[in-house]
Amino acid sequence: MGCAAADKGKVNGLTTLSDGSGVCIGGNDGCGDCFDDGDFNPPSDERSVDKRQKADIAGSIAELVNAILDGHSADDTARANTVKNVYSGLADEYKRNVVVCHTDHEANFEGVEGTDWYHEHFEVDIQIGGTIGYEVYVGKAGTFKRNGDGGEINWGWSGVLAKDSEEDGSLLTFATR
Asked: Are 13 and 22 in contact (CB under 8 A)?
C-alpha cells in the first residue's frame, strides 16, 4: 500500500494512494490513515465509470434498498402486532368495545368522554421514520368510521356490533358491551 499522493487524484474527496490501491480516510498528509481495497479502481476521469464500478454501485444500491425494505417489513409487523395487542388486551380487561386506529376517522361513542368512553393517543416506534401515532377508543355503544386505509397495520377493533359493518367494513355500529 502506498502513501497519499495528491497528484493521483481524489475519489469522493479523499486523496488516492500513490499506487492507486485505495484512499486516505483520516488526513491526506501521509501513511497510516489509509486503507487498501484490492477491488478499488478509481475512474481515470470524473465522467468515466467502468463496468466493475457500475456493478459495485448497483450492488450498494441493492443492499440499501433491501435494508430499507427489511426495516419496512419489520415496522409493519411491529405495527400490526401492537394494534392487535392493544385492542385485544383492553377489550379483555375492560369488557368494552375497543378501536385502535392510525388513519383518519370519526368516533362517536355514547355518553361523556372520560366517564362513559375514553380516548387516548400512543406512538409506535418504527425503524424508518421515527414513530407512528394511533388513537384508542374504549366505550360502550357508538359508531366508528374509518376514512383512511384499512389493514392490520392501520387499525383493529374488538367489540359487539349492533348491526353488520357497512361501507366495506369501514363503518362500525357498536352495541352496548
From this structure: no
